[in-house]
Amino acid sequence: MTTDLEVRSLVDAVTRALRERILRGDLAAGAAVTEKLVAEEFAVARPTAKAAVERLVFDGLLRRQANRTARVPVLTLAEVSDVYFSRILLERAAIEVVAGHGRVPDDARIALGRFDLAFGRGDVSAVVEADVAFHQALVDAAGSPRLSRMYASLMAEFHLCVARVQVLGRLDRTRLAAEHAAVLAAVEEGDAGRASGELTAHITGARDRILAVYAEDS
């Protein structure tokens, strides 16, 4: 039993490290991630490296065709659009429930504080992490573990959408602060319809900015 726990912990550690490298953009879109290289880089056994790679394949952060090397996905415009389409469906369902409670989750406010600090110091990775944490907190507040798991999995792909583009210079800090505040104000007032509308407008605007960058790079 002890050995199993130690192995599992090691797989978790390698998985987290690889995940961070992918989401930071250290591993570019299309980059190969072989079990041999992972094993050598982290000084772990091949089975441990394989388990970590397979977890990331399951999460969508790596893709592998039959008998092929796993690679960091190259997302198409259609795939990016679908990520945002799915986000809107899940987040609107959650925000209507949360607004019905009339209380803003503490974790959402904390995430916005981190977002503002990260934006101020120009830390793109931290901005994205805080933004994801804000939206995840709103979804989690709906009280459905299954919905939260689905959303967390989707947001792994969202990270891929922004990992390949430098979006910070294209964002209006004041505008984003106003959008976030409008969502939270509607939640606090218990206005589910307005909360859903504000959230949809916020995500749609983010989608359009990302798609514009992808279109330029295509």
From TrEMBL:
InterPro entries per record: GntR_C, TF_FadR/GntR_C, Tscrpt_reg_HTH_GntR, WH-like_DNA-bd_sf, WH_DNA-bd_sf
This protein's UniProt keywords: DNA-binding, Transcription, Transcription regulation
Top-level taxon of origin: Bacteria
Annotated HTH gntR-type domain residues: 8-75
Pfam families for this protein: FCD, GntR
Keyword Transcription regulation in record: yes
SUPFAM superfamilies cross-referenced by the UniProt entry: GntR ligand-binding domain-like, Winged helix' DNA-binding domain
Record PANTHER family: GLUCONATE OPERON TRANSCRIPTIONAL REPRESSOR, TRANSCRIPTIONAL REGULATOR, GNTR FAMILY
Protein name: GntR family transcriptional regulator
Organism (species): Pseudonocardia spirodelae
